[in-house]
Amino acid sequence: MIINLSDINSLVGDWMSEIRDEVVQADRMRFRRNLERLGEVTAYEISKTLMYTDKEVETPLGTANCGVIKHQPVLGTILRAGLAMHQGLVNYFDKADHAYISAYRKHNRDGSFEISLEYVSCPPLDDKVLILSDPMLATGASLVKTIDHLMSFGKPSHIHIVTAIACTIGIEYVQRNADANISIWAGDIDDELTAKGYIVPGLGDAGDLAFGTK
Ligand code: URA
User: Which stretches make up the Phosphoribosyltransferase domain (predicted)?
Assistant: First the structure.
């Protein structure tokens, strides 16, 4: 299932216009905050799909019945570009366990690239809901490699992929190749990729825009 967040939240189009705009992108803090806001509204939407249970709590004046999340999700993110969206998810799911995965493109001389996974830290995933943030779903190769690897920590009941821009080619690749129940939540969907695997019109390099180093 693919959900375009712009269709269900009227503010997302406004934030996407800033995230994509090369003039506004110069404000690195605003770029990160907009990604964080996307993470927050996606957390809210995903929260509607979780299971809840009643919990009695003692207030200073009596007993109240509250609906609380039955099983906390696991929040995973692909370093480093996913960190700002991850923070948005953490703002809502503040009791969740976290997974961090460093996945990057190792470019070959001929312009092709392979995905290299390095640092991976992940709690047990069996029957958990995993929410995985990566702002750019371009070819889908790093997400599929990451999901394959994370399966060694257990099979999640569902994986929610949270992304700012998803490319149709990458969406199809993930849907064909990831061995899991998956929903993809995207701020926007674009149709083109450059030969180097950048999304067009996209936004550029999300990691560099959020954290520099170019
Ligand atoms: N990663 C990015 O940061 N941008 C793209 O367009 C594709 C992958």
Answer: 11-213
The pLDDT mean for the chain works out to: 95
What number is the average pLDDT over the span 92-115?
Answer: 89
Give me ligand 1 centre to Cα 126, in Å: 30
**Residue 33 falls within a domain, yes or no?**
yes
CA of 134 to the centre of ligand 1 (A): 10
Specify the pTM: 0.94
Overall number of domains in the chain: 1
Q: How far apart are CA 93 and CA 77, in angstroms?
A: 14
Question: Is residue 59 a part of any domain in this protein?
Answer: no
Q: Is 19 in the pocket of ligand 1 (CB under 6 A)?
A: no
What is residue 214's predicted lDDT score, i.e. its pLDDT?
Answer: 64
pLDDT tens digits along 110-153: 877 888 899 999 999 999 999 999 999 999 999 999 999 999 99
Say if 163 falls within a structural domain: yes
CA-nearest of 148, 134, 142, 159 to 103 is: 142
Whether residue 19 contacts residue 61, with contact meaning beta carbons closer than 8 Å, is answered with: no
Q: How far apart are CA 138 and CA 145, in angstroms?
A: 13
Range of the domain at 159: 2-51+67-211
